[in-house]
Write a structure and sequence with these properties.
The protein is of the alpha/beta class and 120 residues long. It is globular and about 30 Å long. It has a 5-stranded mixed β-sheet with strand order 3-2-1-5-4. The protein has 6 helices and 5 strands, in the order βαβααβαααββ. The protein has a single domain, classed as Nucleotidyltransferase, domain 5 (2-Layer Sandwich), CATH 3.30.420. Helices cover 39% and strands 27% of the residues.
């Protein structure tokens, strides 16, 4: 199963998420992000428009993932190098691997990474 992990700023729009997802290559069945953003209207709307199941990822699961890219903002806010990569890996389950490292939306408001694995 392919999991799309997302990180996004408070001012992100539906277009921001869609742009990041498209740039990452799309094709996922699951959308994952930090648990406090996973049930927000914006993320739910995005997931619904793309027919993706939402998986909220808890802070400890984000912090324990090894990410390829490093964002100072993600490190300070979430204690991970990339929320998008960490969310994708955590939601894809043990042994998951990135197939698309973090990409940034054109407006720089959202990020997306894709991982493959066997979600739990």
């Amino acid at each position: 199963m392919i999991v799309a992990g997302f990180g996004y700023r408070a001012g992100a729009s539906l277009e921001s998420l869609l742009d990041a997802y498209t740039l990452a290559g799309a094709g996922a069945g699951i959308a994952a992000t930090a648990h406090d953003k996973a049930r927000g209207f914006l993320f739910e709307e995005f997931a619904q428009t793309q027919a993706l199941r939402i998986v909220p990822v808890h802070p400890q699961a984000l912090e324990t993932q090894d990410t390829v890219t490093q964002s100072q903002a993600s490190s300070e806010a979430r204690r991970t190098g990339s929320v998008a990569e960490a969310a994708a890996l955590a939601a894809a389950g043990p042994g998951a691997r990135l197939i698309t490292p973090r990409v940034i939306s054109t407006d720089k408001m959202a990020t997306c990474a894709l991982a493959i694995g066997d979600p739990t």
